[in-house]
Write a structure and sequence with these properties.
Blueprint: E1 11-13, E2 22-34, E3 42-52, E4 63-70, E5 76-92, E6 99-100, E7 105-120, E8 127-133, E9 152-158, E10 182-184, E11 188-192, E12 202-207, E13 255-257, E14 263-267, E15 272-284, E16 287-301, E17 304-305, E18 313-316, E19 321-323, E20 335-338, E21 348-349, E22 355-357, E23 362-370, E24 378-386, E25 390-391, E26 394-397, E27 404-409, E28 412-413, E29 418-424, E30 434-435, E31 441-443, E32 448-458, E33 463-472, E34 479-480, E35 484-488, E36 493-494, E37 497-498, E38 502-506, E39 511-512, E40 520-521, E41 527-535, E42 538-549, E43 554-556, E44 560-563, E45 568-569, E46 572-574, E47 578-582, E48 596-597, E49 602-612, E50 615-626, E51 631-632, E52 637-639, E53 645-646, E54 650-651, E55 655-659, E56 664-665, E57 673-674, E58 680-687, E59 697-705, E60 717-720, E61 724-726, E62 734-738, E63 752-754, E64 761-769, E65 775-785, E66 790-792, E67 796-797, E68 811-813, E69 815-824, E70 830-834, E71 844-845, E72 848-849, E73 853-863, E74 868-877
Parallel strand pairs: 10-16, 18-24, 35-42, 44-50, 52-59, 60-65, 67-74
Antiparallel strand pairs: 1-5, 2-3, 2-16, 3-7, 4-5, 4-8, 5-7, 6-17, 8-9, 11-14, 12-15, 13-14, 15-16, 19-22, 20-21, 20-23, 23-24, 25-28, 26-27, 27-31, 29-30, 29-32, 32-33, 34-37, 36-40, 38-41, 39-40, 41-42, 43-46, 45-48, 47-49, 49-50, 51-54, 53-57, 55-58, 56-57, 58-59, 61-63, 62-64, 64-65, ...
Keywords: Signal
Protein name: PKD domain-containing protein
Pfam family, one: CHU_C
Length: about 900
Amino acid sequence: MKRLLVLLLLVFAYGTASADHLKGGFFTYRYLGPGDNDPSKNAYEITLTVYMDEFASNQITTSIPFTIFNADNGTELTTLDASRIRLDTLRKNTADECIINAPVGIFYKVLVYQLPMVELSPNNNGWVVAYQRCCRISGIANVIMPSNSSGNTYAITIPGRNVLLAAPTNSSAVFLVNDTGIICRNSYFEYDFHGTDPDGDSLSYSFCDALHGGGQSPGGTCTTCPAPNPAAPPPYPVIGYSSGFSGGQPLGPQVSIDPRTGKFSGIAPEVGEYVVTVCVNEYRNGVLIAQTRKELHIKVADCSAVQATLLPQYVNCQDFNVIFNNATPTGVVSSFWDFGVASQTNDTANINTPTFVYPDTGLYVVKLLVNRGEKCADSTTSIVRVYPGFFPGFEFSGICANKPTQFRDTTKTNHGFVDKWFWNFGDPTTLADTSLLKLPQYTYGAPATYTVTFTVGTNKGCSETITKTVTIMDKPPLTMAFSDTLICKGDTLQLGAAGDGIFTWTPAVNISGANTPSPRVWPATTRRYYVQLDQNGCLNHDSVDVNVVEFVTLNINPDTTICLTDSVRLGAQTDGLRFEWTPGEAMDDPGLLTPVVLPGPGLNTYRLTAYIGHCSATQTMRVRTVPYPQVRIQDDTTICFRASLQLNGVHDGNRFEWSPTTWMTNPQSATPTVRPPDTTQYVFTVWNTSSGCPKPRRDTITVGVMPRIYPWAGNDTMVVAGQPVQLLATGGVRYQWLPALGLDNPNIANPVGFYSEDPEYINYIVRVFDPRDCVDSARLRVRVFRTEPWIFVPTAFTPNGDGRNDVVRPIAVGMRKIEWFRVFNRWGQLVFETQKNGHGWDGTIKGKDQGSNVFVWVVKAVDFKGKEYFAKGTVTLIR
């Protein structure tokens, strides 16, 4: 079941406050039987329930006047004081936990006034009981501002004998006073406004107009009386509704009332208070005998309710996939869907936005249950229509201004039939440019481009809107096959025109089919033919000149010479209309005036015949082909960096050139020498103009250049006689050391040298080769000491920046490496450390010069045999 999104909690209280504005009310009456004083009359109990603002005070009186009018003639019968029998406060003390930001507090003060018995004689049209009062509250959302200038008339008619003989004994419908509903803005809601009938009559419900009355309202008997006594006679004027609202749509177009149940529902408008009046009609045996009006203010609050909300229906006319979504997910913890396929048990889902593929076409009912098993649960259902195979479309004819344009629906559907059409012809000059017909006509007043919108639907619920642009012209389009032509005297020619309508050709001389688009003509002399196109009275005109000749003029292009293997375009100057070249085997199209042909070796002769009807002319053209010059260079090659290469160009031409000429000696020679710094492509171009071939021929050589070699033999080194030393060269893929003196292998990058005491110096050259045997070299000196391996450290140094003895450093002789060299001051502080041979201390600590003093050094090194050496000593810094 759909849970009503209204709050029905009531707490009655009593009290008074300090405001005076009305918020609705309703009359009821109850038949008591024959009159006590006069049994020929009917006795009634008449009650008025009035809703007021929670702060109402001076409007709360102990009695109010009820005026009774004879409905037969509209005259006042009497005005009686009705006593207040009840004063209640309708309030809500606890917010509904299923509505977020639900307001609480006082909703209304409810005043009930009653005449316990009134005796009225039965008549034909009955009696009208009325009470008028000013004023309504300020700021009513659906009433023209200021809303408090509108008073209120509460009225009810006790029926007469004209509607039904027993109608005067009727008792009106009655209502519960439980109006504390809260509606959330822009949300779906349902509100129960139903009544009950003590006589068992059938009730129907509809929205109706709220009525003016009292004080400032035009229906009052005095313009300053808040409660006219007596009330003004009927009929009563209605209040003014603001834009978008009316008595029939008091909550806007998205809210409607069920005529059978009195329940109204839909999508709530924006926040505010809205005047809603419901007319309750009583039917007895199918006869309308009475009507009761209930007026109330409906509050729309800025809140949101936990609710399941679906579209009124889902229609898919494209395929079987339907996408669903709970349109109001606020407060929704879980969603359960039943897609309504009776033949399936797995037609459910538990996600908020599911997609379901229906097994077949048809009508289904989908159900959504949110917060299943929770207190704030809600459910709703909707209709699903699945009828794929809907193909909307339309076409039109007639495109002239001030002439009818015919539109035709071309929609196809596989299910049901098309039964709804709405056309908007897009004419901005009028509002009367629409139609509901299947095959409408519309006349546009001016040439322009119009956008036609067409909405089409079927009895299965399929609906779609499509648009097309319609170009309206001042005359129908007329296209000519040609504007002028030639024929040979005595021939027949077929003219041609295209358009939509009736064709008429003139003059009617030497012509057949003058009322067709393509007549045949055979003029004896040059003549102009005119054509008229009539499209529903919309006319267009054009003409064609037919020139009559007795022969064909032809001047073929002169003979030419081209290079063999080239193609050439043939041609001629002629008034001919049809052409034939022979031989045509090597042509792209021998029927063209200017075909492209690929001639063979030597002299080629081509024959052109031009025709105009049966007239013709023939001429020939010769094309001679000569070979291109011969040209050749040696193959691509690669040279070493900084090497040179002699190019060798061979040709049979009478002129040549090289490109580029950069890094080239003697470019005027066919055999120049080049020395490019990197890979370069050289082009050799040759001409042989003496043979008749005007085009050159070229050959190309790419001279690749190997990358530059960067040879490295290592730093000069020192060694102790009898100690080995490791040499290391880099930069290539192959190496050669010269001389080979003392080396274990002079043809590797890293030979080991072993020396006796002589000589003291050995100077090596290492030749470094790349993968293509390009070579470069580097040098290395080895000094041989006649001493044991050791690390020498000076005893003093003078860091004064003169370039001599400015640092204290280790000098390793016969050592493979220094593992560390350290210098300490007299307090044991480390002031310098290095692992590099020859790297030393400059006499500063953290950039600050040290004064003259004695420092301690220690060193550890490893010779070429792997033996470790330790040494220490002192050095004096002299400033």
